[in-house]
Amino acid sequence: MSHLDPTRLPRWQTLTERAKDLPHLADLLDADPDRFDRFRIDAPQMRLDLSRQRWDADIRGQLVALAEDAGIDATRKTLFKANTFNPTEGRAVLHTALRASVEGSIDVDGTDAVAAVHAALDRMRTLADAVRDGTWRGATGKAIRDVVNIGIGGSFLGPAMVSAALGDSDRPNVHFLANIDGMEAARLLPALDPTRTLFIIASKSFGTLETRTNALTVRSWLLERGVAPAELRKHFVAISTNIAAAAEFGLPEENLLPLWDWVGGRYSVTSTIGLPIAIGHGFAAFERLLAGARAMDEHFRDAPLAANAPVLLALAELWNQNFLGTESHAVLPYATALDLLPDYLQQLEMESNGKSVRRDGSPVTTRTGTILWGNVGTNGQHAYHQLLHQGTAPFSAQFILPQAAGHHFDHHHDWLAAHCFAQAEVFARGRSAADVQAELEASGMNPQAAAAAAPHRAMAGNHPSTMLLLDDLGPESLGALIALHEHKVFVQGMIWGINSFDQWGVELGKVLGTTIHDALTDAGGGAGVADTTTRALIALFRSRSG
Asked: What's the total number of domains in the chain?
């Protein structure tokens, strides 16, 4: 596998030069009446408008050629068979196998990964159906009314995002318990009937600190309310490969669904980690999610790079960041149902590509990763859009709008779309002080007052954005949306020459957190903690907490 330094490629230098003499985005838009059609990509369940990216056809072609130089044409196909894309952990990367058709086959260390997935899906269907139809009963023989997913990171964000996007579950109610902050458990548990609640422990290792802490808290809560230890198996299932740890907790092997080393947490929503989706919305909805992801997988694998939605989305953001100097990327879903999408994409993109060394351990020589943020729809217009329109920090944006509203208030959806399209236009075009002054004078303001007011109302524009129109908010569209961004991350990581599939940066804080916890809860105070400020904070915290 190549460990290229992309900045040494001749095409990188060519693109660096092209970035120096680009006209304003408004001029690019006005110069080509067919620009929308030239920069539109149709992909499964969506259409991407890339016409408001600050590029032209030549730059786009140079970026596609850069991807070819980085070997994307070959490596994208390797993502669908046995591979070594995660060398630092000695693991393959095969989240595409999670939604592969049953006719497929991928050998991983002598095991057919696709067959293993479909066997797990069969068990997942049986479990989900049993909970939904009342066959699964709690310790007192009552049907399950509430399901609580206990997991964090990829074991929380993906299922929670999809569940929220699909709307309220029909039966049973689905909740999520993720944070180690006890306030989450304190607010959730009193609303539950322990005899009618099923908990899902979502942890591949069965040892994730936050998940294990919450699971033990819930276990104690059940025992305190009369559930016998032998009956705990009726109130817990787990998604884990650690059979011994689950048994110690009180769960038999038949209560476990598998997960595999070749699935990273942030890529796992289409695995058994999606059990809350299957329970809350039915296994058929989960199958539709898989179908949407599979359709995007096939598009990514087979479509030419120049007409490939994940590839062009990746190249546009790489162009913005590495050549145009944008500092952050705003994800702006104009759909309340997609409220958690920016959070989900934060983990997917920032945990994947926040790296400072290439796959061979040598330092990167350009910016990697993307500082991603955002929230839902018009709420942002009344909060941070002021900074976007008239601030000084360069950024890019992605607008996401479902064409089908998913409700019967059509006039609301028309207004929502109008605001979405208007914001994208103003980001691109802005408004000059001269135009503002002319408008003010035309409205009757005297020239001197208009000249004084104009600078305060002008907007620079020239901010690149992508408009993504989803067919709807159904499971297929959500699956395609997830896979689109998974493959975007893959393409960028390959071009930067980094490993998008490990996350060693989060490990040191976890280890140090254990040391500090011991100091916080031990009479010795800060013993074993080297940092003087941390020791002082421990002493201060202990003095205030009694």
From this structure: 3
